[in-house]
DNA sequence: ATCCCGAGGG
DNA sequence: CCCTCTGGAT
């Protein structure tokens, strides 16, 4: 049996990560909820740097939900082509604009349920928007980095992101969820990488179950 | 070849 | 749980 995650240890780890990465923040740094939503939709399998480049011009041409709803699909595809998965993303952005108009008067809804009901918006994107645009996080942002770290630290034994999120929510108080997402993602990108973590540089190595199991450099 | 702050469908 | 969708950087 895997030892169940120790809440006290987990909180200590999180505290250390917060001290180590005081500037950890959302890589898609948009206070406008629509911009954040669009940027996050575009971020699938794409670097945040490229998303920021692409969205820079995009927001001028598509300032609101109506602009996406009425967009020319193939033109939008071309504009976001370099972010990958561009056909899915363009179709979703247009459908999303229409859904925002029909269901929410062109505004961005503020609940997980309403956000995930939008085309192309899953749990991860919804949590990013809720936490960073509204300060109303209903959970943690579980991306590939958070998945990996939660597994390595023994915080979860699940692989399904929804169940991982449940485990992490149980581990940390609600007011820490958004910042926890940021430091975990930052740590995952800089240190606890896949497949080779830079353990010699890791600030929470002494609390990591992988000591003695995994070699690193 | 492998990775990038995923979503939706089988 | 699996698979597909896609381009760009390293």
Automatic annotation (TrEMBL):
Q: What is this protein called?
A: Endonuclease III
Q: Write down the PROSITE patterns for this protein, in alphabetical order.
A: ENDONUCLEASE_III_2
Ranges for domain HhH-GPD: 42-190
Named cofactor requirement(s): [4Fe-4S] cluster
- The species this protein belongs to is Desulfuromonas versatilis
What Gene3D superfamilies would the database entry show? Helix-hairpin-Helix base-excision DNA repair enzymes (C-terminal), Hypothetical protein, domain 2
Print the keywords alphabetically: 4Fe-4S, DNA damage, DNA repair, DNA-binding, Endonuclease, Glycosidase, Hydrolase, Iron, Iron-sulfur, Lyase, Metal-binding, Nuclease
**Entry EC number(s):** 4.2.99.18
Q: Which gene encodes it?
A: nth
HAMAP family noted in UniProt: Nth
Tell me the organism's taxonomic lineage. Bacteria, Pseudomonadati, Thermodesulfobacteriota, Desulfuromonadia, Desulfuromonadales
- Spell out the SMART domains in the cross-references: ENDO3c
The similarity comment for this entry is: Belongs to the Nth/MutY family.
């Amino acid at each position: 049996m895997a030892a169940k995650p120790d809440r006290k240890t987990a909180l200590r780890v999180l505290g250390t990560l917060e001290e180590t990465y005081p500037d950890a923040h959302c890589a898609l740094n948009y206070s406008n909820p629509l911009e954040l939503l669009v940027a996050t939709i575009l971020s699938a399998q794409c670097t945040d740097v490229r998303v920021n480049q692409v969205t820079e011009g995009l927001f001028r041409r598509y300032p609101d939900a109506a602009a996406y709803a009425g967009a020319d699909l193939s033109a939008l595809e071309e504009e976001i082509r370099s972010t990958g998965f561009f056909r899915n993303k363009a179709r979703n952005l247009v459908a999303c604009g229409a859904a925002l108009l029909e269901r929410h008067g062109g505004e961005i809804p503020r609940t997980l349920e309403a956000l995930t009901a939008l085309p192309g918006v899953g749990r991860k994107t919804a949590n990013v928007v809720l936490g960073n645009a509204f300060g109303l996080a209903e959970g943690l942002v579980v991306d590939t980095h958070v998945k990996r770290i939660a597994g390595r630290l023994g915080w979860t034994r699940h692989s399904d992101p929804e169940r991982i999120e449940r485990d992490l929510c149980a581990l940390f108080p609600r007011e820490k969820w958004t910042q926890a997402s940021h430091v975990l993602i930052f740590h995952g990108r800089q240190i606890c990488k896949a497949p080779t973590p830079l353990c010699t540089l890791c600030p929470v190595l002494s609390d990591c179950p992988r000591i003695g199991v995994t070699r690193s450099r």
